[in-house]
Structures are given as C-alpha cells and as structure tokens.
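tool_call: predict_structure(chain=1)
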Amino acid sequence: MSDPQRREFLVTAAAIATLATLTGAPPAMAGDPSFMNNVPDPSLSGKDLPTFKFALEKSEGKVIGNSSGKEATVTQLPISRGLAGVSMRLEPGAMRELHWHATAAEWAFVIEGRVRTTVIDPAGLAETNDFDPGDVWYFPRGHGHMLQCLGDKPCHFILIFDNGYFSEFGTFSITDWIGHIPKPLLAKNFGLPESAFDTFPREEVYFARGKPPPAEPSVPLQGWKLPPETHRYRLLAQPPHGVYQGGREWRVDSTRFPIAKTITGVVLDLDPGALRTLHWHPNADEWQYVIDGSVSVTLFGSHGRVRTEQLQQGDVGYIPQGYGHSIENVGSKTARILIGFNAGIYETIDLTQWIAANPADVLATNFGQPAELFAKFPQRDVFVTGRNGPGK
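tool_result:
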C-alpha cells in the first residue's frame, strides 16, 4: 500500500470509528455489523433481555386503497438486526410496482390468494411465475421485480429480508426514479420524444392499480430469456421435512432451492401443548411470524437471563444468532409459525441431542447428579415433543 493509499485508508477508518462513537454502534451495513465485527450489541448486553416481540399486524403500515404493507425492522423491533419482514396484502388488480432492494435479498411465503411475479437478473434474464398458498419465492439482492395479485380475490404474503436495517418503504421504485429524472435525459435514454413522459407519475406509486392480469402470463417485450435457476419453490406441496408426535415441519434451504443462498425458510405446525424443544442455531438469526394460533417463546441469553413472550396470530418474534430458545403451543388449536433464517444452510443444535451425545459420567459431574438419572433422559435428538413430553 502506497503512502497516499495508506493515508486515505486511515482517514476513512477514523471517520467510521467516529461515527460509531457518536451513534453508540457501528454503521449499518448489509447484515448485522455488530456481530460481524464482534462488538457487543447494546440491545443485548444489558442486565435483562429486551423484548423480542412485535405485533406486526396491529401496526399502522402503509395503506393505499385495499392494499397494505406492514414492516418489522430494527426501527420497530431494535433486537432484529439480522432480519426484517413485511406483511403485504394486495387487492385484485393491484401490483407492488417494479422495484429493487439495494441492501437485502427477498424471501416470501404466500398465505392467501394467488400472486404473479416477474424478476430480472444482471445478465438480462427474466422469469415470470405464478404462486399459490404455500409457495415460496426468492429474489437475490438488487434484482428488479414486481408482485401482482392474480384473480378476483385479494392475496396475502409474508416477505423476509436478510438485513434487519432494511426498510420496505426505502425501496428503489421505478416510478420514483422516472418521475424525478429530467425529461431530456429520459428522452435520450429511451429514444423517445419528451412528450412521451408527460403523463407518467411524478411521485412513487408504490401500489399500482389496474385491470386484473390475464390468466396466462404475457410474453416480455424482449421475448423469453429464462435464468438458469428458478425463483419459485412449492414448499407446502412437498412432504413435510419431519413428522413428529407433536407436529410437522416443512423446510427449504439452498440444498433444495439453489437460488436462495442467503435465506432458509421453515413452516412449523405444533399441535396443542406441543413444544419445539430447547435449541439454538449456530449460523443464523431467526425471524418468526405466527400465521395461526398462540405460542410461548422462551429466550435464553446467558448470565442467567431468560425472557418469555406470548405471540399471537400476526405477531413477530426474533431470536439472535446462537441464543437458546423454544416454541410452545399454548393454545387450543394447531399453531402454524413461519420462520426465516439469514443463512442459506439450516443448522440447529437441540438440547436433547447435546445431552444424548455425552457419556453419563460426564453429565453426572457437570450437574452433580447420579449417573443413573441420565439413563432416563432421551437417548436421541427430540425435535418436537407432544403435550406430555418425548415418547409419551
């Protein structure tokens, strides 16, 4: 490194350090900078654990006509640095306009209705897909796309982003861009007269509304030039990844959905009284959305810190990477939870599995208990238990 380069580097580093000092935290970048730089997260370093719950569906959000978007980012839930989410509803004929996300990839799960998407990648390859309830899409960071309600019924889907600092309402929209570019520049760019842009929107449309789209996708202006990897995965059309005494789990990561390199998704059904056992995720933060039912989530944060939150339908929960936790159905009907992780590969370590992986004499010494006691513990990994515990 030459002297001028070194001086420039030092000046930049000093500026970043100054910003961190003034704000009390490192500058926000893609992902969680406090974890990447091994700096304690102020929201997690106190005597007590902070709340990890946000009532997403009770928030105000953005509403245009009968279409809406409600978000959960670090602004609404400060603990959620690694992941953000949006609950979006579109009325028939409505479209979340052409846009892209500069700082996050997008993973989505369709809950109700039908959705059509188009997406383009940096190679100019584009794909149109239609989605039904239970289907998933993934758009890599920066790829342009749109979301459109299909048919005569409204649709509802949950979007998960691999960056908690991301804001859905800070997205780059095509009408916002074209509406603020001088007409001479637009005319030169597209080879059209300036008057061609006289009636274009001057402000961001966000939710565009028009006629319902045709039943079959229209051919793009450039014709079909498909990408090598699809952006669509039919999650609930697959057999469950696991069937347990107290529930079922559907899971998709990049081993099954190759384009989804930064987000893993799970749909977890828990029967009344069932428990997703005590566990942690070594490689990812966890974002939870309760689709149906009521659950109790207990978070362990070291140094004797434990916090329990009750999540109802429409609530969001957040678990930082490496923190121990469990999910218990405390309602009278099956609970369904949508879970997103900011890693392309799913990893978990369950407490039952850890206990079973150690000899009885080690456990006896660790806990100060008779070695015979541990013969009564599960001799295997217990992922989900029924109302009365493993094997009962």
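agent: The CA atoms of residues 106 and 161 lie 5 Å apart. Proceeding to next step.
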